[in-house]
Write a structure and sequence with these properties.
Blueprint (H helix, E strand, L loop, with lengths): L1 E2 L9 H10 L36 E6 L8 H5 L7 H8 L4 E2 L5 E3 L6 E3 L9 H5 L20 H16 L10 H18 L6 E3 L1 E4 L10 E5 L18 H13 L4 E5 L23 H10 L2 E6 L2 E2 L36 H15 L7 E4 L26 H4 L4 E2 L2 E2 L8 E6 L4 H10 L2 E4 L5 E7 L12 H7 L1 E3 L3 E2 L8 E7 L7 E12 L2 E11 L34 E7 L9 E9 L2 E2 L1 H9 L10 E2 L2 E4 L2 E3 L4 H4 L28 E4 L2
Helix pairs in contact: 3-6, 7-8
Protein name: DUF3604 domain-containing protein
Keywords: Signal
Organism: Sphingomonas cremea
Length: 668
């Protein structure tokens, strides 16, 4: 992705546009006009299935599953007023597009797929109320939604949030016919840009539930466009995930296949992954667990507002647990989100304990990376970062100003993640099916290729075979799969990673294992493949840190360290066949400068305090789960106790609550 850092005008370029009266927007989405200076693109209709390239061993496709345009009410009110879903697809396809700050940005190479996920709540309405050519601008309610300055825009935003927070419809905007007309246009744009075999444009949107400012958002993806709903299900219909799932079940009965991707568990204050009661305060049941499994096969592991894998509080022996963390509740300054019930690794652990003690595991989900940019365009690389929130972080000066907005410490915002999907074809159906079976992984924005298979009899020499991928499928399961028990021996895993050709070399491949035993949760991180001739510590097994080549002052690095490719057949040395376990792969790059270090260099100032000047970008694979047949006999039937939910109300910053009744043990 490329941006021109020399063309930033002032601290927030878009403010000048707003003050000049350009805040009123006339959308180009209805006709999907290609921006000036962009070569037109031939948008093909559905290609014959036989003509679409297909690989039975599957290829990796990189894409975006979380992106906002001017059609989202919050994006419009912070200054993204001129670009919509059409431009989002154009950007993903490699075309140069205008950032809300007025400068041009472009991907260095196109994505394979994109899901535009504008908020379903009042989809497109703020844009239309501010468009003098739209009938919506003539409605009486439109006067309360119009803004000609950033200050007025913020008042509009607060007005809208007051209705959404109480689940009350805004008078004059709840007309189903009006909602349907906007939804139909939204769907038509994705249809226009969908090119089977070349570029996949999903029909998708975001359900925006945030009870008490606690994030419970989900992005909804449809497998195809043949039987879409008349209008999307919104948080005004219900802010309970259980009601969303019930609606999704109804859609399937009518012939519409769809799935949900949860995001920002790290900001949910413990609500995203409950262990005792559901969103309605009822005890968790096997039926609840099955509903979650049916409807939410995936979660975001990384996005602009932080990483949701784990934290040093939850994983004190994981030396890489502190990657790009944020901890607040959206919309509340000086707020604190309890980590328990908010992070993915702990959810996987709790799922094992629930399986052992209760007979069900609601947390067998896969992982993807995504963005949540509200700019229409999305920044993936540290060296060409342009923020994700219009005038709030659209320039180096604005990003390094130390601003906290709606709870967000701007300098702690991250680059967008990416989803890597192993699918036979670049089509909606094939990519959706890969998501459904969880053969996917997330990255911090880099395009590392990662594969993992788990089985019982992989030979140590398998990577010497040309068809090792076929061996992986034939003798085991890929990431996202279930490894069935077998008498004798420990499972082995094929792990393989290939660096992003445009970014840093690889440092190491790790396997993260979690298991439960005797009322405790355990985890251990194994270094299984690494660059160079480093030797693991004989006591801990940890591989020493790779040498950093980063020059912080000049915001540069070299690829003189690290490896282009890493691979390994790894057998679990601590395997106990009687215990539930999960395994997932984590791949780390060598250290490179963080975006804030590049910004500091551009401004001629020292890198900001409070964030690391370097990062080790990475990828996280969806787990492989092992389920024994003898676990209930080995673990006392009621011996594993699950910690009760913490108080979900917003609270001042404090030390995390203790682990509760289910204690934690970590491997070294």
């Amino acid at each position: 992705m490329m941006s021109n850092r020399g063309k930033f005008a002032g601290s927030v370029a878009v403010v000048a546009l707003l003050a000049g009266g350009a805040y009123l927007a006339q959308s180009r989405d209805a006709d999907a006009v290609v921006p000036d200076g962009v070569l037109s693109v031939s948008l093909a209709q559905d290609a014959p299935a036989a003509a679409i390239p297909s690989n039975p061993d599957r290829d990796v496709f990189f894409g975006q599953t979380h992106n906002h345009t001017s059609w989202s009410m919050d994006a419009f009110t912070i200054g993204n007023t001129l670009t919509g879903p059409a431009e989002a697809y154009q950007f993903a396809m490699g075309m140069p597009i205008k950032h809300p700050g007025g400068y041009e940005v472009k991907l260095n190479k196109p994505l394979d797929f994109q899901g535009v996920t504008d908020h379903s709540e009042y989809l497109g309405m703020i844009r239309l109320a501010n468009d003098p050519t739209s009938p919506v601008s003539k409605l009486p309610i439109a006067d309360k939604l119009k803004a000609s300055s950033p200050e007025q825009a913020m008042q509009v935003f607060k007005y809208l949030v007051s209705f959404i927070a109480t689940n009350k419809p805004i008078p004059g905007l709840a007309d189903p016919a009006l909602t349907k007309s906007v939804w139909d246009e939204y769907v038509a744009i994705s249809e226009k840009y969908n090119q089977p075999g070349k570029f996949t444009a999903f029909v998708s949107y975001e359900w925006t539930s945030a009870p008490g400012y606690q994030n419970m958002h989900r992005n909804i993806f449809f497998r195809d466009s043949k039987h879409l709903p008349q209008v999307p299900f919104t948080s005004m219909d219900s802010d309970k995930a259980e009601d969303l799932w019930a609606w999704m079940d109804g859609q399937r009965k009518s012939g519409t296949d769809l799935l949900a991707i949860s995001h920002n568990g790290n900001l949910s204050n413990g609500l995203m992954f409950p262990v005792s009661t559901d969103g309605k305060g009822k005890p968790l049941t096997p039926a609840w667990a099955q509903e979650r499994l049916n409807n939410e096969p995936l979660t975001e592991i990384h996005q602009l507002k932080g990483t949701s894998e784990t934290t040093p509080e939850l994983s004190p022996n994981d030396e890489f647990a502190d990657y790009e963390l944020m901890n607040f509740m959206i919309g509340l300054d000086n707020s604190y989100s309890n980590p328990h019930g908010s992070f993915v690794r702990e959810a996987y652990q709790h799922g094992l304990a629930m399986q052992a003690s209760r007979g069900y595991n609601p947390y067998k989900f896969g992982m993807v990376g995504a963005g949540d940019s509200h700019n229409t365009v999305t920044a993936y690389t540290q060296s060409n970062y342009f923020g994700g929130h219009a005038f709030l972080d659209g320039s180096p000066k604005a990003r390094l100003a130390g601003t906290v907005e709606a709870g967000m410490d701007i300098v702690k915002l991250s680059t967008s993640g990416l989803a890597g999907v192993w699918a036979e074809q670049n089509t909606r159906e094939s990519i959706f099916d890969a998501m459904r079976r969880k053969e996917v992984y997330g990255t911090s924005g880099v395009r590392i290729k990662v594969r993992m298979f788990g089985g019982w009899n992989y030979p140590a020499t398998v990577f010497g075979q040309r068809d090792w991928v076929k061996v992986g499928y034939r003798n085991g399961v890929p990431m996202g799969g279930d490894l069935r028990p077998r008498k004798g021996g420990a499972p082995s895993f094929l792990v393989w990673a290939l660096k992003d050709p445009d970014d840093g070399n690889l440092d190491r491949i790790q396997i993260v294992k979690g298991w439960t035993k005797d009322t405790k949760l355990y985890e251990k991180v194994y270094d299984v493949a690494w660059a160079g001739d480093r030797r693991p510590d004989p006591r801990t097994g940890k591989v020493p840190a790779i040498r950093s080549t980063v020059d912080i002052k000049n915001a540069s690095y070299t690829n003189t360290e690290g490896a282009v490719e890493l691979k390994k057949v790894w057998r679990d040395p601590d395997f106990d066949p009687s215990l539930h376990a999960f395994y997932y792969v984590r791949v780390l790059q060598i250290p490179t400068p963080r975006w804030s270090t590049y910004d500091a260099k551009a401004l001629g100032v020292a890198p900001p305090k409070g964030v690391s000047p370097t990062v080790q970008e990475r990828a996280w694979g969806s787990p492989i789960w092992y389920t024994p047949t003898t676990a209930q006999a080995r673990l006392q039937k009621n011996g594993v106790r699950i910690a009760a939910n913490v108080d979900p109300r917003p609270k001042a910053k404090a030390k995390p609550a203790n682990r509760g009744l289910l204690t934690l043990a970590t491997g070294s």
